Amino acid sequence: MDKRILKLLYRSFDSNLRDKKRQQLTDALKKSQELQKEKERIFSMRQAVSESARQSFLPLFAERVMSQLNSVETKEKTLVASFEAFRAIFKRFALIAFLILIGLVSYNLLCSDFLSKDDICYVPTVTLAEILPPPLF
Amino acid sequence: MDLSEQEIVTKAQKGDHDAFMEIINRYEKRVAKTVIGILGDGAEADDIGQEAFLQLYKALHRFRGDSELGTYLTRIAINLSLNELRRRKRQQEAFSSTLQGHLQDLRRMRKQNNKDDIKKIVRRGIQELDPRFKIVVVLRLINGYTTQEAAHILNLPLGTVFSRLARGQAKLKKIIERMYNV
């Protein structure tokens, strides 16, 4: 069977052929019984494919999708709520820590004669001589 | 719910679950035909179908109405189905034992010549097609999209769709004839 004509035959099922191509196919079909039978076979196969299709999922499909959706949304809400709760607790602790820090810095400032970074952070100013024991000789 | 597609989408975008349920009811058949056509019957097809709608819900806020909602949803379903096919291919195990069982089933069906069994043969035949051909055959012959619509969904040139459709049908015919003559 002519492959070119066979290609036209398949194409004829899915689109309108141009006049020249349609005429070529018509002429070929008139001349060949085999081609006519092939056309019928293709037609039957296409029918069978179309009729074989299952058109629905298992029962209660929509309900199962919504159930999954609700489950996902609940998890997301729980996660967001947990994060918000953590953030609220962290804020309180952060505020308390900040106030303690301010208190410590203020205390150190009050105890020192002048402002220095070491005094603010209470870094003790000691020398080596103060730390090391005196030499024996 | 007697609303237009645009109205339903707008409601669903705002989180209206009833509106989204309506979307599922309207498009379940279309998605089922696509997914089951590509993957065959079974629980996996059902899972993929569910996942398609869940992904639609998550992506709904990005949907601008440039294309039909059905087209958008079909694309999601096709992508998920192709991923599933790739996963199955990677997991292909004990093929010879399933093939033997498959041939026995076909012999039994051939003897009975039952209409339902012929449908099963056709479905199995479709499953044997290369994914590139399977998708166009499913969209055109099962979903009933025109070739232009199929080309738009798959983002392929029209000529490519025609070519794959012709080759897909030719291969499918051979596969079914081989199965039927087992």
Task: Kindly describe this structure.
The complex is a heterodimer of chains A (137) and B (182). Chain A is 76% helix and 0% strand. Chain A is mainly alpha-helical. Chain A has a domain at 3-52. In chain A, helix 1 packs across helix 2 (19-31), helix 1 crosses helix 3 (33-52) and helix 2 crosses helix 3 (33-52). Chain B folds into 2 domains: 1-92, Orthogonal Bundle (Rna Polymerase Sigma Factor, Chain: A); 94-182, Orthogonal Bundle (Arc Repressor Mutant, subunit A), CATH 1.10.10. Chain B is 80% helix and 0% strand. Chain B is globular and about 55 Å long. Classes of the chains: A mainly alpha (137), B mainly alpha (182). Chain A binds chain B through residues 6-7, 10-11, 14-15, 41-42, 45-46, 48-58, 61-62, 64-66, 68-70, 72, and chain B through 17, 20-21, 24-25, 28-29, 32-33, 36-37, 41, 43, 45-46, 49-50, 53-54, 57, 118-120, 122-123, 126, 137, 140-142, 144, 147, 162, 165-166, 169-170, 172-173, 176.
Tags for this model:
heterodimer, A: 137 residues, mainly alpha, 6 helices, elongated, B: 182 residues, Rna Polymerase Sigma Factor, Chain: A, Arc Repressor Mutant, subunit A, 2 domains, 9 helices, 0% strand, globular
How can the largest sheet of chain A be summarized? none
Helix content of chain B: over 70%
Overall shape of chain A: it is elongated
Distance between the termini of chain A: 118 Å
Please name the two chains that share the biggest interface, counting residues whose Cβ lies under 8 Å from a Cβ on the partner chain.
A-B, 30 and 40 residues
**N/C terminus separation of chain B:** 50 Å
How many DSSP E strands of chain B?
0
Structural class of chain A: mainly alpha
What gross morphology of chain B would you assign? globular
Cα gyration radius of chain A (Å): 44 Å
Strand content of chain B: under 5%
Q: Helices and strands of chain B, in N-to-C order?
A: HHHHHHHHH
The structural domain count of chain B equals: 2
Q: Number of helical runs of chain B?
A: 9
CATH architecture of the largest domain in chain B: Orthogonal Bundle
Count every beta strand of chain A, where a strand is a DSSP E run of 2 or more residues: 0
pLDDT averaged over residues of chain B: 86
Please give the oligomerization state of what you see: heterodimer
What is the count of helical runs of chain A?
6
Which percent band covers the strand fraction of chain A? Answer: under 5%
